Structure formats: C-alpha cells, structure tokens
Amino acid sequence: MSRGLRILSLVSLVALSTGCATKAPPYDYSGFMKAKPTSLLVLPPINESPEVKGSSSVWAQTTKPLSEAGYYVLPAALVNETFRQNGVGSPAEAHNIPAEKLREFFGADAAVLIKIPKYGTSYYLITSETRVEIEAKIVDLRSGALLWEGKAQATSAENNQQSQGGLAGLLIAAVVQQVVGTAADVAFDYSGIATDRALGAPRYNGILPGPRSPKAWQVQP
After folding, report:
1. I need a labelling partner for 78 at 20 to 30 A (CA). Which of 17, 91, 146, 158 fits?
2. Domains defined for the chain, CATH in brackets
C-alpha cells in the first residue's frame, strides 16, 4: 500500500471512529414502554436565566410538539389557573408537589418537568447570540418513576451571518442585534425550535410517540 493510501485509510478510520463516538447510546425506554402514558401535564418551567420571559415563553410552546407526538396535553392556561387558585405561586413550588397530589388534581398519567438554563440574547465583543437551552424529563404520576429525560437547544449561531463591514461594522451589528433581540424577545422564536427538538417525536433518544400517533411507542433508530 502506498504512503498516500495509508494516510487516506488512517484519516477514514479516525473520521469513522469520531462519528461513532459523537452519537449517544440508545436510551433505555423500558420504563416508558411499561407506563405508556396517554395524558401529560406540563408544569411551569423553572427559568434559570435572567430573562423573566423565559418560563412563560417556553411553557406556551410545549403543547404543540407534545400534541403532534400523539399525547393529550392539559392546557397551560388551565394548569396555571389551578395552581394560582391553590396558592402555588412559582414554578419551583409546582415542581415540588408530590406526584400523587398532581395526579389527584389533574388526572394526568405523567408530568413534564422543564428547566431553562439559558434564554435570551447575549452580547459579546464582536457578536451577539440568542440562545435557548431546555432540559426536560417525564415523570409517571402513578408511580413517581422517571420515564424519560433529555435536553435540546436552539441558537442564532446556527445560521448567523455577520456584517462584513470591518471591526466597526461587526461591533455596530452586534449591538443592534442585542437591542433588537432583547426588545422584540427574539428568543421566543428560538424557544419554539428548542421545545420542538426536546419534546417532538419521533426523535433519536427523544420521547416516544404517544397513542394518537401512527408510530405509537416506536423507538426511533
């Protein structure tokens, strides 16, 4: 084998091993398959970012991907009003309610618990970035068992095209993007993408499609 072919072969092996290493191992769906929840209660997300809009923005967009995945999802407005009338004033308080009590109040099979590590637009030296990160898990309200957990993100860096007007142009563009992004809550749009990635189905290692889906309970390869 020539030196060139040996180098090409080595590069191919490295690329192959790198590609395999980046894919997470298959999720263990045994608990999910045993429980097979049909109705979901989405609790108000815990917002760990400094943007106060984070929780409501993400919460408002959870129904669509879960419904399209084949589940009955309790309306967020109904859930919010029920919590308000019963003195639950924050997402953290809602997340601390025992599973059996949530089951008693709402009658859902499982609860979707969401945390938001990052939400909003941040300014750096010559750029600004809008980012939404979501961590989610599904807990069986009948047994308290964890059925699934995962995370997803969406960021403007995925399709960001900066100005080519030199350093001054980059700085101006970054400031404008941050001001506009914060004022218009551009992160709301990215939260829709992130929630779809986190809660949509079918996805590799995502939640299983629900009973109303033609692919009900099928694991995505």
Report:
1. 146
2. 26-199 (3.40.50.10610)
